[in-house]
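Lecture 7 notes: from sequence to structure.
We start with the chain below.
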Amino acid sequence: MNSPKGHLSRQNAFVDVCVGPDNSVGVALANDDMIKSGMPFGFLSVRRGDVWLEGGGTTWDAAAVATTQRPLNQFALIGPQGQAHFAGSGDRHVEQIADGAHSPKDYGLIRCARNIGGTVLACGMKKQVYRRENANRWVCISADIIGGPGVHGFESIDGFAADDIYAVGWNGEIWRYDGSAWHQCDSPYGELLVDVCCAGDGRVYAIGRGQTLVVGRGDAWTARATELPVELSSLCWFQGKLYAASTRDIFVLDEAGQFVPIAIPDDFPRTCGALATNGHILASAGERDLFTFDGATWRRLD
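Predicted structure tokens for the same chain:
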């Protein structure tokens, strides 16, 4: 670990993290002073090599960050009401997630954004799922299931491919998208699912409140206790293993099917919570700590 502590985290909190195809790390941040003042504000920063690049600020809070390769290689900072700030490849602009009658302004907050199939997908309350087809063109791919009474929606989304996507969320709901329609899976869990990971072993992993891990694919699912004293908030598949994070620790699923804590010598992060990977490096972002792992060495970026 050869990067000094506290460059960004002295006055800002990391909200989310993603990793670009060139191993650059993009982070969504919230500013401490703006939080205290009650003014909405978020900004994007990108770590490329040993240099921090400023990606731009917004007049809305940051909810998620993701990469896209279509039509340009960029980072996307997503706001809770569907705002989208793009930066990279010599371009910087803002878009609004909406598709005709379908918009976060009508259905509620956006909760997650992921790169699936080279482009950004965003999901949120009332089972909203939007896919970015091109610059300033978003398509609601969940029009067949969106809306309805009560409090419900998606907290997280991931996919093996553009026609094999899973979204999870409130009331333990799990839905699968086959490229044209959504199908509700028979979930073995009835509480909030906070994250989902389509893993390299061909299985789908979801983590729920109450220390519960849900595993399956298609119509076959099981749930079991993690046997951890903490709740997990993020899952990520990296180099043949399932990693997980709580707000204070990073874990890996061992061969016995148990989550065991990661030992990072000398400089373990005080805060964790969000994991992301591009397949080559794993990134961990907590409120005040940012680390990467290349399979051999953990490195502090902030």
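Points to note: The mean pLDDT is 96. Residues 12-300 form a domain with the Methylamine Dehydrogenase; Chain H fold (CATH 2.130.10.10).
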